[in-house]
Description:
Elements: H1 9-21, E1 28-34, E2 41-46, E3 51-55, H2 67-71, E4 74-75, E5 81-84, E6 89-92, H3 93-97, H4 104-110, H5 112-117
Antiparallel strand pairs: 1-2, 2-3, 4-5, 5-6
Amino acid sequence: MHARVKPSMEDIEAAIARSAMAPEEPTITEAVYRPEPELDLFIFTISDGRRLVIPREHLQAVHNATPEQAADMDLGDFRDTVWWPQVDEGHTLEGLLAGRYGSQAWMARLHPELAEAA
């Protein structure tokens, strides 16, 4: 059995100070779906000022969804995921920022030229 060590107030204050200095992970501040025929895309605004503009057909989670299903989005509790409850699928912000819009097989179909080069 391990003895429980109670952190001192100095330990707690030091941990808070380190946390305040840590870079904040980006979050999704706004998610918009534009279903117009010429557009049919998502615009994700990120807390660091970037915007991701992704055609719906590129996102594995919603490529076959109806416009109504695609428009019904939930952002995770920490705003680091986007979830479409009607299709029970989603994507992480980390994956979207890295250009991962689906499984490895999905990405190979989306970008066959990259799969051939690997």
